[in-house]
Amino acid sequence: MKYNHIKFFIFFFFITFFNLKILFSETTEDKIFEVKNISVEAESTSSTKAKEIALLQAQEKGFKNLMNKMLLKSEYEKIEDTSIDKILEFVDAIKIQNEKTPSTKYIGKLTIIFNEEKILSYLNSNNIKFTSLRSKPLLILPIYKFAGVTYLWEKKNIWRNIWVDDSSNEGLIPIKSSEGKFTDFILFNQDQAVKKNIKNLELLAESHNTTGVLIAILKKKFNRDKSRIFFNLNLSIYRFDGGETNTFQDTIEIYSNEYSDDVLKEAKLKVEQFVNQQWKTANVITSKKEFERITVSYKNLDDWINIKKIINNISIIDKYNVSKFSSDKAVILLSYSGNLNQLKVAFKQSDLDFDLNSKNLNLVK
User: What is the arithmetic mean of pLDDT over 12-33?
Assistant: First the structure.
């Protein structure tokens, strides 16, 4: 993409007058509106000019990554042509993870920090449905089947190994793997029927501080003349935070002489795409605000302060007012986006238990 001198002027205008911060930084805690690991490379008449181009590219790329994370495809298509001028308005800071500046080039890996309020206001004003709710991780149980043998915790499980080596944390719903503790094997192994062991799956999720378990079965088989290999992918997500059970099936087909670890990486990508797609679908919200009167229960003042901090950080909650307050209870009027079940799920991600019938909220014990 070519940028003329006007683009450069706009860029420096925002740096000077809107106090855009460019920082050198180590990696930090994952946040939705911080888009990390954006690789850029640009060339111009000098390294300074090349850096100007690269920083513009990084902000545009970061915005697209953020929108793909928050929006379903149909919604993303409505704003994919957002101008670079508009994107610059959303940026609070740029963190430089690493960079190289040869004489006429710039090569860097950057983090772009977007302003949450401005992004959400932009989406709402354009009637874009989105989700900004980040889930607690899912615990993945990668089961590999081949030649009549089923693997889960074994070291020979090549499907599990790829998840242990590279867990997924980029989307709104991170996927974490287990190293295979003894208690994990006691709670669940590949020979157990899932439907008869839902309680054990819930205990397994709790032991890893996750709100659900993703059972990902990858079955490898050959055709009759062994010229082709089929990898059948069968996924089931069991959530214990009020979310629904979701399933997915797909097949990867290759010629036998084409087999490599890239097949496993392709299967892993399909898993990540499905998990994030179903989360966005289940938690998509609109600009319409709902109101609910909620009773907050707590044991002491510290609990009340912690609950207030959590509520303030939940993205789908707009604001709240305290109408009654006592030593162990408070009644608040809450303004939020979405529906009551989405609100319950949002609370659960932050270790708050919300009863849909009594409308009572308290810290998870």
Answer: 48
